[in-house]
Task: inverse folding
DNA sequence: CATGAATGAGGATTCATTCAT
DNA sequence: AATGAATGAATCCTCATTCAT
């Protein structure tokens, strides 16, 4: 990595981090490029030097967030001294943490995916995001298979598909649970964290032997 | 209902239906009042005669959609000649149908809920929507309890809470499943409907005795 | 006056009174015909049966207000048992009272006057307003002349002109004094009424012998 | 002052001057941002680069106008070779001139004043305007006191209060006199200027010894 | 006589993006 | 490499007024 590349990365991260903060507080739509520029202490045009447009900032952050998840769950899955059940709950926690930091990434992860690689390549980062998504799915699939081998899980379908199903249920539940946290507290006298853990447990029941 | 009220309702529905179509295609934010007016063949100002603002159109549609769900599942749950399992799958189908027609309602149902009634009452329809949501939850809770009585289900927690958990899982899964339908078809060689039914079955497993 | 005319007058006053209230609270520009109609409990179109447009309501009220002034000060001036000085202060009070009730009339009285009678006649009521204005001026002029005859006032110019000058000073001072009432209270520890009376006294000094 | 600041000032003044012209002709409310932009030959959005909103243009002009008054009358009051009476009439002329250029400023000066400094600070320029207003009042008060010392004036109250009273009378009279200039010419066969000077003379009589 | 219904014509403000320097 | 300057294109919403019934 040349010095120039390092500088570039530095600035991109600088900008992206600021954007992440603002997106998380006010949402993507209600965060203007002006705000990002001002808050990150760059001129608005400079933002456009490092990112082609607003969407690219979003995608950059999504890629970053998903990579974090990938690394987070990989580490958990690859660790030797944990039970499969522990691993499962820790994977859930990785997602919960990401939501706490960058809720808007979840909205993006729930969006339509472009299946034609050639189309994806037209938008910078889009294909990378797809790949990381696939990596995550494979990693979880691997975890499920290992669990089955270990006689902890019982899979009724292909691991890759089950992995995807878990992914979608978890994402949906975490997003929903966070949005409705007030409702949950009022109605069930239970904080969001406990509630989510209860749901995670129920979901685990599906494959637990 | 007087003739005048009928006319009013007619126009409101006319406008709302057009909006529903546009919201479903382009999303709420990217649908402008101009578009709705043009497409519904009213002048822009006339739209404002029937709806106070854009949000009211959205809420009108959300209320309508949720009321449809409520009625749909009530009918199913109250019917005498169906097994509890059949009822469950049919409830799922009600949600699936609504998504097909008005996906944006799901986005709204996943949004934060205002818990202070006095605040809800400030925005027309908001409290009605809340009430219908509660009705739906209660109805599903009732269904779960009956299922338990019938020895078909085994509930590990209060029916109302389980009802809510099912609600959020179903909503999340349907939304996610639809957004990712292409992915599902490509990866798992399975159409969206079958896929969703498989997930519904897995979820049923949680409470099935 | 036929019954029909009585009805017409009744409705006009009904509407105008409501408008007066709203104009006084929110100003003319910020009061919409919708509001007037709703508040007066007529349909919006009915308003247009009794008044050609919004401006006519304003003019109707201005005419009414100015006629009240005219009558008020005429009564004072024509009364036998008051000193000229008392009469002066009472005239001032008539204006003060009108401002309290209908501040917006003052704004109108300070507006440009159309001098060509043929032009005035094109807008309903405009010429009537002009005439009442003239009447008021003449009445005050008469008062000043009597005061001079009584050896209470000393006029340095024609009474009609002085009358107009007093009219403009009084109007300006009352309007200004009301708008700045908070400032007056804070800076001079004096309530608006006392302050205005002090100014009226100073102004009286100009002609007092 | 850097070149950039100069440019900024140049554009602000460019825009403000155009607005001033339009405001003077058609009034503030009836002048649209579109008009200002078109007339000043900027794009509408560019206007918003230099002014936050329409109100800020108004306040900018009000501040400018009042500062002009302040400087104008300060210069007059501080000059050594004029009689107090001359100074008085020249001060009146400063106001008359401002009205000729920017009548709408007078309307603003006659509006309610926000007395809570914290509230004023929320709107850019508002507090500055207040301060300049105070400066003007103090300067006139100083003039009155000097006149008293010089044995030319006889003050019956505190100079600051008299200063304010003169201010309000003058503003009111100039505004009224200008609006009614046609009436004055027709009725009294006298041009506006002479008429106003006559009124100024009468007003001077109040404090003249 | 009263009005329900409909609308044309604005109007303020926002913001992502471009481009010359 | 960084940015100051400028803007085109939207977007939501308001309201006085008309007209057929």
Result:
């Amino acid at each position: 990595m040349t010095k120039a590349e390092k500088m570039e990365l530095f600035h991109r991260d600088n900008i992206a981090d600021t954007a992440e903060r603002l997106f998380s507080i006010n949402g993507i739509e209600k965060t203007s490029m002006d705000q990002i520029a001002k808050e990150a202490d760059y001129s608005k045009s400079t933002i456009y030097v490092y990112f082609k447009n607003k969407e690219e900032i979003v995608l950059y952050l999504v890629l970053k967030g998903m990579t974090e998840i990938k690394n987070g769950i990989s580490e958990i899955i690859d660790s030797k001294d944990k039970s499969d059940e522990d691993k499962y709950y820790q994977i859930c926690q990785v997602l919960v943490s990401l939501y706490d930091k960058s809720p808007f990434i979840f909205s993006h992860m729930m969006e339509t995916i472009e299946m034609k690689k050639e189309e994806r390549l037209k938008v910078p980062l889009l294909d990378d995001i797809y790949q990381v998504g696939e990596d995550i799915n494979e990693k979880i699939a691997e975890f499920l298979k290992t669990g089955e081998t270990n006689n902890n899980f019982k899979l009724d379908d292909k691991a890759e598909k089950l992995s995807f199903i878990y992914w979608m249920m978890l994402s949906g539940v975490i997003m929903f649970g966070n949005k409705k946290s007030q409702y949950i507290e009022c109605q069930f006298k239970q904080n969001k964290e406990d509630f989510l853990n209860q749901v995670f447990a129920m979901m685990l029941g599906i494959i637990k032997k």
